[in-house]
Write a structure and sequence with these properties.
Layout (H helix, E strand, L loop, with lengths): L1 H5 L1 H12 L2 H14 L5 H10 L9 H8 L4 E4 L2 E4 L1 H14 L1
Length: about 100
C-alpha cells in the first residue's frame, strides 16, 4: 500500500508517520490484544503514552520487535500487514494525500 503511494524510498517514512499517530497505535494495540496472545501489552502501553508527541518516533521494525506483533511484519524492506491493518493504512493515507 505504502509503496504504491510513494515508491520504495518513501514506504518506510509513510509507515513510520502512520504508526506514530496515537489513534493508529490504539487501533493496532486493540487488534493485537484481540488476535495475538503473545502481544506485549506493557511495551505497547509505553509507546501509547508517547504517541502523538512531537519527539515520538517509532519504526515498523521497532514496533514489531518490542511488542511481538503478528499483524504487521517487514521482510527485506517490504511491508506486510493483516488485511484489517492494511485497509486502515490505505484509508488513512488516502485521506491525507
Amino acid at each position: 500500500m505504502a509503496k504504491a503511494k510513494g515508491g520504495d524510498a518513501r514506504a518506510a517514512d509513510i509507515i513510520k508517520n502512520w504508526i506514530r499517530n496515537r489513534s493508529t497505535l490504539e487501533f493496532l494495540g486493540t487488534w493485537e490484544k484481540m488476535y495475538n496472545s503473545n502481544f506485549k501489552v506493557v511495551e505497547f502501553n509505553h509507546f501509547k503514552m508517547q504517541a502523538g508527541l512531537p519527539t515520538f518516533v517509532l519504526s515498523a521494525k521497532q514496533w514489531i520487535e518490542k511488542t511481538n506483533v503478528m499483524g504487521l511484519y517487514v521482510q527485506a524492506g517490504r511491508y506486510y500487514a493483516h488485511k484489517d491493518i492494511a485497509f486502515r493504512l490505505y484509508d488513512e493515507t488516502m485521506e491525507a494525500g
